[in-house]
């Protein structure tokens, strides 16, 4: 095996490992972005907890085929960038926002989430979903609300008794 083939095999294994480690992987066409825009997009991805990389389509196809996914062959044509997400929604949110911010320069292709193929509309749906942290906060707020309301009722009950006793004491003194 030549050194070039060996290097490609290593890169394909790296891609496969990143896909396995990621909760979501979003593929986009980035053809018309300037270097400054790509740098800004990488920064936004990093802030959101995902990684933006560019790989050759043949290596992406090979890695996905190793994972048993052959539905991506049609999408992996032309310039392709990949966003590896640490949760199911972060990469989709960043890439959908980039598609809006950069108009025709970033085009959504497809995604790989929970070992399944997701099309453009699915990426947009993922981007509109709340993140795990938001869902946990909402759940905790829902659990805390009845307790807070009960504490408020008890507090009003006790303060009402105190007011009544205060009025009784004032009427006895008069």
CATH level-4 homologous superfamily of the largest domain: Ribosomal protein L10, N-terminal RNA-binding domain
**How many beta-strand elements?**
5
Tell me the β content.
5-15%
Helix and strand string, N-terminal first?
HEHEHEHEEHH
Radius of gyration: 27 Å
Cα(first) to Cα(last) distance is: 106 Å
Uncertain runs with pLDDT below 50, 5 residues or more? none
- The fold-level CATH name of the largest domain is Alpha-Beta Plaits
Mean pLDDT rating: 83
The level 1 CATH classification of the largest domain is Alpha Beta
What labels describe this entry?
174 residues, alpha+beta, Alpha-Beta Plaits, 2 domains, five-stranded antiparallel β-sheet, 6 helices, 61% helix
């Amino acid at each position: 095996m030549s050194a070039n083939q060996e290097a490609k095999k290593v890169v394909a294994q790296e891609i496969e490992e990143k896909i396995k480690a990621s909760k979501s992987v979003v593929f986009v066409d980035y053809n018309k972005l300037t270097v400054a825009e790509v740098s800004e997009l990488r920064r936004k991805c990093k802030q959101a907890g995902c990684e933006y990389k560019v790989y050759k389509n043949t290596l992406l196809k090979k890695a996905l085929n190793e994972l048993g996914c052959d539905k991506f062959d049609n999408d992996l044509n032309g310039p392709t960038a990949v966003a590896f997400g640490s949760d199911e929604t972060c990469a989709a949110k960043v890439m959908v926002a980039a598609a809006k911010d950069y108009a025709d320069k970033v085009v959504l292709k497809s995604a790989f989430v929970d070992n399944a193929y997701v099309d453009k509309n699915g990426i947009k749906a993922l981007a509109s979903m709340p993140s795990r942290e938001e869902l946990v906060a909402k759940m905790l707020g829902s659990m805390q609300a009845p307790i807070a309301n009960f504490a408020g009722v008890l507090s009003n009950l006790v303060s009402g008794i105190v007011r009544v006793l205060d009025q009784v004491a004032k009427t006895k003194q008069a």
